[in-house]
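User: Teach me something about this protein's shape.
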Amino acid sequence: FTAVTGVSGGGKSTFLIETLFKAASRRIMGSREHPAEHDRIEGLEFLDKVIDIDQSPIGRTPRSNPATYTGAFTPIRDWFAGLPESKARGYQPGRFSFNVKGGRCEACQGDGVIKIEMHFLPDVYVTCDVCHGKRYNRETLDVLFKGKSIADVLDMTVEEGVDFFAAVPGVRDKLETLKQVGLGYIHVGQQATTLSGGEAQRIKLAKELSRKATGKTLYILDEPTTGLHFHDVAKLLEVLHELVDQGNTVVVIEHNLEVIKTADWVLDLGPEGGDGGGELVASGTPEDIVREKRSYTGGKREAAE
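Assistant: First, the predicted structure itself:
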């Protein structure tokens, strides 16, 4: 677990995103992006993939949601399609998709909302007055599991979903990872357009956690604690260290001392911003950084203690 620290403009993003990430992506995954100028990077042969987990949205339409992004929605649809009522009616898993015709509300095409274009202002979304935001037609909503329709399931919080699908491992395990990263409060089918950048980033982390670990992945995160309460920071750290325990490498750009002090290794860049930056001021354990007189990060840590 490595933290890249330093003042704003000190060269952290140039080093980590523009150079390391782009160079690793180009060599390991065949990306066509050109990295910043550098001499050489050693050790890439020990990695099989590199992933930049940023705060960009998980989707830009109301149909994108945590369930579809993490892959939990497929087993949910399969489960509803396997219920006796569905079999009697001849419903297949596609019946419970809001991306194709059949079971969805055609008035809003499964969005649950109607988009009103405002031309010179941002688009406005209003609840569909046919399905009232449920996304499905009446026949699809007739199929119930434990008294709940698929629309009710999508409206549950992740925490409620974990309990509701306790006997369905394919769904429960994926929702459990969302709960693990501190997102037990969001709704299973919450529209991506209503999620914050920090929430989107943690949903991406949850997806990575639910995958089979190879132990050879490099994860890069740019200031993942931005906007997080200290309780959420603690949960995020648990997840990041779990990825490391699986044999992966996690590198974060971070200013938060609570994160920096848990790092195995710190790279402090600077010493100043802009033209006065771009140097490696210090590297080592957090304790080593504290002893470095030129490091503002070390001074900040010392003052905090």
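Now, about its shape. Residues 2-57+195-304 form a domain with the Rossmann fold fold (CATH 3.40.50.300). The chain has a mean pLDDT of 92. If you'd like, I can walk through any region in more detail.
User: That's plenty for now, thanks!
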